[in-house]
Hints:
Galactose-1-phosphate uridylyltransferase, 9 helices, GalP_uridyl_Trfase_II, UDP-glucose:hexose-1-phosphate uridylyltransferase activity
Amino acid sequence: MEGSQVIYDFVSSAIESGGWMKTDRAYLQNKLTDMTGVVVSSNNVNQVSNMTAEELCQILVDMAKDNKANEYQTEEDIDQLKQSIMELLTPPPSVVNAMFAKKFDRSPLEATNYLYWLNQINGYLSGGKETSYGIEFDAPMHGKCPLCFENEGTYEPGSAFLKKTRRFIRLNLNNDSWGYQLSPLEKDKEVGLFFPEEHTTLFMTNLLIDQMVQLVDLYTHYEIHYSQFNYFYGHSFLVGKRVNKDRQILCEYTLPFFRESKFAYDMEQANDVVIQTNRPQDIWLMINYIFSLTVSHKRGLYTMDFDYYLSKTETDYQMIVSIHDNASNKSKDNWLFTLELLKNELEVRY
Ligand SMILES: [Zn+2]
């Protein structure tokens, strides 16, 4: 494939991705020529090939290595070049945010689909591994926080998060500024990360549940997950995954004092408890009620030993409280004991 054609096709993708206008074509071509040493001749280009932007980028990088062997020697030089090329497919943050907001007004699903599409074509989603804790940071740590706002578009060698193509969405929860981006560790799955702008560690509190409720109100197609293990350098994040309807169960019990809310538990399998309510202010109270059952037996539970998954059903909010695999055996014992006590409380069938 000829260099001119590759550049033409790549620029077409860049214009399609929304960051540029047709009038920017010559400018973008010249920019790519600068970077890669590939000269554009005007006679043979107009047919767009079926190659993806990523494939086109790879061809340009290979051509650049030949044309500018002195400039691109190390792996890092090449990685930087690749990201600079892919960044041309990525509108500036303000434009991404404006486009996201416009789509969000029509449908949150459409907006997140847009962000996923953009992150896929610009190569931000490069893949990685997921552990039972959630997402593992597989890149070398350089002291730069992968979530902090100030690092948007920063290049860090080897980092899955800190790339020139990183873009995130600004949102407001309880007058706190938050960010939302996709996890680059998932290549073929849309996994959202929600994080406060302030570099801070989140604890399970009433305020956090409020913020999770706001998130599922906005992103009704996400289940929002809190775990104390989800943080980088002490900067916590919540994980948003597409709601799995199989996890939304029919709760049939009630708890004393919370007769308007429904409740379920599962002693056979995961030892989870499930709270379903249309009164979000009750979620925190119900969790406290459950956790305080063992107090008179002097067998305490730590809220941080648990994972919390909030989603919205057609009528209610559903919170799954699940003891973490990594909790101590003592905590696990206390939790089983709590479930026994709970069983006695739940004699009222819904
Ligand atoms: Zn941070």
